[in-house]
Amino acid sequence: MRKIDTQCCIAGGGPAGLMLGYLLARNGVEVVVLEKHADFLRDFRGDTIHPSTLEIMHELGLSEALLALPHDEVRSLAIRVEDTDYALADFSALPVHHKFIAFMPQWDFLNFIAERAAAFPNFSLEMEAEATELSVEAGRIIGLRAAGADGPLEIRADLVVGADGRHSTTRSSAGLRSIELGVPIDVLWMRISKQADDPSQALARIAGGHMLVMIDRGTYWQCAFVIPKGALAQLRARGIDALRQEIAGIAPFTGARLGELETWDDISLLTVLVDRLRHWYRPGFLCIGDAAHAMSPIGGVGINLAIQDAVAAANILLAPLRAGEDLGPYLAKVQRRRAWPARGTQFLQIMIQNNLIAPAVTGGAAIKPPLAFRLLNRWPSLRRIPGRLIGLGLRPEHIR
Ligand SMILES: Cc1cc2nc3c(=O)[nH]c(=O)nc-3n(C[C@H](O)[C@H](O)[C@H](O)COP(=O)(O)OP(=O)(O)OC[C@H]3O[C@@H](n4cnc5c(N)ncnc54)[C@H](O)[C@@H]3O)c2cc1C
User: Fold this and answer.
1) How far apart are the first and last CA of the chain?
2) Which of 19, 20, 35 to mutate to test the pocket of ligand 1 (most atoms within 8 A of CB)?
3) Whose CA is nearest to atom 15 of ligand 1?
4) Which of 37, 295, 348 to mutate to test the pocket of ligand 1 (most atoms within 8 A of CB)?
5) Helix (H, G, I), strand (E, B) or coil at 368
6) Band of residue 43 on the pLDDT scale cut at 50, 70, 90
């Protein structure tokens, strides 16, 4: 068994884990990040980098290099309901340096952070290393055990961070309890190739009892088709052709290309889950990102929140970690700082899910656009409010 002693061990190389690892390593803390996969190439991740994350990258002096990678800049958001486009959010007035959402494959973003972090000798990233359980001594978490690429790993650390996402092993191992907030929808995730005369930007569409979101990934559209929770079995019973027709009805330009969805193997079910922990920490252990509060895809803000948690955790924990102080009061401080932005965002997501998206995909009929859409469409200055909520979120963090 390989043994490692470090100051901070982070389980999970997603946005939360890698950003926290980078920030701590940049400030001299010894960090080991464990990622259970062999690479970051997974197509079920969101692709959005919001203005508040870009601002953090700017504060770190990294935004120019990041934005040199291929990306799309989305300065406003719109939705098509039946045959009408509604402009919903405008980022142009945000008080930040990059007033847009950058759509970039998340693996490019994660590789970028991992490469920058690797420049610090006190940072180490163990790929294909899956945290399996926490090590506890006298009621305190003193490290974790993991299954590594070359065999078992035992890591001792002053602080263990669970950034291992919505199905967090570390939070279960710590015995932390979550509150599940009901979600009426799931998402079918699939690729459809792109053609030169397709619409130029990602757009959410609601029509005829269905909802489709298309993310531009250069040569193909990453599509999210929203279904009522648990409806996949019914859909499968009707056959894949019925699904193709539903997609063609909502995005007619995809037409003949829908034959690319040959079997159900070309379609993944992404279960939407919204939950949050009552307590994010135990002595020696802290959860951040989806491990502390799993986010719905609505607004595409989960990555952003995960990064904000990482920045707040680094701001609060850096000095006591370096000084070898008791971290107890500081872990509570991280939860106090980040719990309400997570709760507030989940509240908004659930309101939109229950009042707009669930009715749009369960009734099988055309829906009337909500009054808010009509107001936003009519008065452009109002679009700054959703622009701020989506682009910066509640309580944006800054690098200290
Ligand atoms: C269908 C869907 C679409 C979404 N689209 C968007 C979007 O467009 N924009 C957006 O902002 N948010 C989106 N979200 C939400 C977003 O994906 C999450 O909120 C965000 O990824 C959370 O980041 P994280 O770092 O906390 O966790 P994750 O991104 O889940 O990262 C956790 C990492 O830990 C690794 N891991 C897991 N278990 C272990 C273990 N035991 N040991 C070691 N490593 C482990 C995983 O492989 C993963 O790399 C979407 C969610 C869903 C369900």
Assistant:
1) 38
2) 35
3) 302
4) 295
5) coil
6) low
**Residue 363 DSSP one-character state:** S
CB under 6 Å to ligand 1: residues? 11-17, 34-37, 45-48, 130-131, 163-165, 169, 187, 270, 272, 289-291, 295, 297, 300-304, 306
Q: Supply φ then ψ for residue 284, to 5 degrees.
A: 85, 0
Distance 372 CA to ligand 1 centre (A): 30
Say what the pLDDT of residue 201 is: 62
Residue whose C-alpha is closest to residue 169's, from 284, 11, 16? 11
Model-level pTM?
Answer: 0.94
The CATH architecture of the domain made up of 2-47+105-180+273-361 is: 3-Layer(bba) Sandwich (3.50)
Let me know if 295 is exposed, middle or buried by CB neighbors in 10 A (0-12, 13-18, 19+): buried
Own/partner contacts of 381-384, CB < 8 Å, gap of 24 or more, are 383/76, 383/87, 383/88, 383/89, 383/90, 384/90, 384/93
pLDDT at 45: 67
DSSP run (H or E) holding 73: strand 72-74
- Confidence band for 44, pLDDT divided at 50, 70 and 90: low
Nearest Cα residue to atom 20 of ligand 1: 303
Residue 233: pLDDT band (50, 70, 90) is: very high
> Whose Cα sits closest to atom 27 in ligand 1?
165
Residues 6+ apart with CB under 8 A from 293: 275, 276, 277, 305, 342, 343, 346
Q: Which two tokens stand for residue 129?
A: 């290393």
Residue with CA closest to ligand 1 atom 12? 302
Question: Residue whose CA is closest, atom 29 of ligand 1?
Answer: 14
* Residue 23 pLDDT grade (very low, low, confident, very high; cuts 50, 70, 90): very high
Q: Which two tokens stand for residue 218?
A: 């250069």
The C-alpha R_g of the chain, in whole angstroms, comes to 21
